[in-house]
């Protein structure tokens, strides 16, 4: 994915885990996966390198993703977002 840095193309590879209030993924989660992925990709691609390279930037990114996930889902609620892979080139 390209980051929104003007003048210098950058690529971001992220793997994340959503911790929720349910042990197993629900039918709602399965049905909404395309929308969730699109929303998360939109958030990530709108960020600039300098915004997400600090620990504060990553924390803000986690909160924004969690808020968007909780906005899209009714019964399943994200409690935490964990980045298990975060590579920028």
Structural class: alpha+beta
Q: What kind of assembly state do the chains in view correspond to?
A: single chain
Write the H/E string, N to C.
EHHHE
Count of individual helical segments? 3
Strand % is 15-25%
* Major sheet attributes: 2 strands, antiparallel
Q: What is the helical fraction, as a range of percent?
A: 40-55%
Spatial order of strands in the largest sheet: 1-2
Query: How many beta strands in the DSSP annotation?
Result: 2
| Domains (count) | 1
| CA-based gyration radius | 14 Å
Give the uncertain stretches in residue-range form: none
What is the arithmetic mean of pLDDT?
A: 89
Q: What is the CA–CA distance across the termini?
A: 10 Å
- Choose one word for the global shape: elongated
Describe this structure in words.
The protein is α+β, with helices and mostly antiparallel strands and 89 residues long. It has one domain. The chain has three helices and two strands; from the N terminus they run E-H-H-H-E. It has helices at residues 27-45, 49-52, 55-72; strands spanning 12-20, 78-88. Strands 1-2 form a two-stranded antiparallel ribbon.
Descriptive terms for the model:
about 90 residues; alpha+beta
Give the helix/strand layout:
Layout: E1 12-20, H1 27-45, H2 49-52, H3 55-72, E2 78-88
Antiparallel strand pairs: 1-2
How would you briefly describe this protein structure?
The protein has helices at 27-45, 49-52, 55-72, and strands at 12-20, 78-88. With 89 residues, it is α+β, with helices and mostly antiparallel strands.
